[in-house]
Amino acid sequence: MKSKHPVPAVTSLPQSPQDEADHRVRRYVLTMAIRIVCFALMMFIQPYGWYTWVFALAAAVLPYIAVVFANAGSDSTETIAESPVQELEAPAAPAETLPIVPEAAPGVFTIHESRQDRE
Questions:
Q1: CA–CA gap between residue 106 and residue 101 (Å, rounded)
Q2: How many Cβ atoms are within 10 Å of 98's Cβ, its own excluded?
Q3: pTM value?
Q4: 14, 23, 106, 114: which could form a disulfide with 79 (CB 3.0–4.6 Å)?
Q5: What would the pLDDT profile of 94-107 be if each residue is shown by its tens digit?
Q6: DSSP of 19-85, one letter per residue?
Q7: Left (φ > 0), alpha (ψ -120 to 50) or beta: where does 55 sit?
Q8: Is 1 helix (H, G, I), strand (E, B) or coil?
Q9: Residues near 16 by Cβ (< 8 Å), separated by ≥ 6?
Q10: CA–CA separation, 11 vs 8, rounded Å?
C-alpha cells in the first residue's frame, strides 16, 4: 500500500519574496511619512513646549526604527513549506533473489545478469 502525504495547503507556503519586499517598503515609507509629520509639527506648532521635544525625539528616532523594521522582514517565525512531491516506498526485494558477493569491496556494486533477466 502506498503512503500518501496530504496535499500542502496554500496557507502553509511562505510569502513570496516580492510580496515581502513590497510590504517592507510600504512599512518604511509609512514610518518616514510619520517622521515628516513629526518634524513639521515640531517646527510649526506655536508656542513651543514639552510636546515640541516629543516631536523632535520622534523625528530623530523614527529613521532608525524604519530601517531596522525594513531590514528585519515581515515574518519573525520560519514557515515550513510542505513538499508537493509524493513519496513512494519501493517494494522490498525477496532475499533469495539478491546475490551475495563476498569478494566485492565495500562501496562497489557488482551486477550479474543472465538471459532470463532481459525478458
A1: 11
A2: 8
A3: 0.52
A4: 14
A5: 656 555 556 655 67
A6: HHHHHHHHHHHHHHHHHHHHHHHHHHSSS--HHHHHHHHHHHHHHHHHHHHHHH-S-SS---PPP-S
A7: alpha
A8: coil
A9: none
A10: 8
